[in-house]
Amino acid sequence: MGVFPMININNAVQFQHLLWDRIMKQAKIVVDATCGNGHDLLYLVERAKPNCHVYGIDIQERAIQASQSLLEQKKIDSNITITFLHNSHDKAFAEDIQENSIDLIIFNLGYLPGGNHTIVTKPYNTMQALQLAMPKLVKDGVITIVAYPGTLEGYEEMKQLEYYLSSLNQKLYNVCHWKPINQVNNPPQLYIIQKR
Question: How close are the terminal C-alpha atoms of the chain, in Å?
C-alpha cells in the first residue's frame, strides 16, 4: 500500500471526497443541500478553514436534529459557522440562502438512511434547487450530486437529472457523470457541475 490510503473508487460518496478535499482548502461558503444524518456535513466541517460558513439543509426535522447531534459530539473549530435550515432544498435556495459566492454545494438524493423511505427527494424540487443554486456559485464553484438508481423512484430521478444536466450551456457550466461500470445492483452515481 502506498503512502496515502486509497479510497474505494467504485463508491460515489467516497469518490466525490477527492473534489471536496481540494475545494475545502479555501472554501468560504459551503452548502449541504440534503444533510440527512450529518455524515457528509461533518466531513465538510472537519475540513473547513476558519471563517467558513456551512449550511445544512433538510426537509425532515429528524435529519436536522441528527446532524446537529453528530456535530455536537465532535470538536468543531469555533471560527466555523453552521446554519441549519429545516426546509426543502429548492425553497432554501430561494428564500434563505442569499449569498452569491458559494464554493461547494452537495446533494445526496434519495431517502434519509434509517428514516421513512417514503420521504424521498423529488425530481421537480431537485431541478428547482439546482436552477436556483447554480447562479450562486463562484467561478469554478462545484456542485456534486449523488443519485441512487437502485429504486424505481431513484432511477427516475436520476434519469430526469441527467436529462436536465445534459441541456446546460457548456459555455456556462462543465458537467460530468461518474459511475461504476462493473458493479451489480445499480450502485449510486455521481454528477458534477462546475461553473465556468
Answer: 37
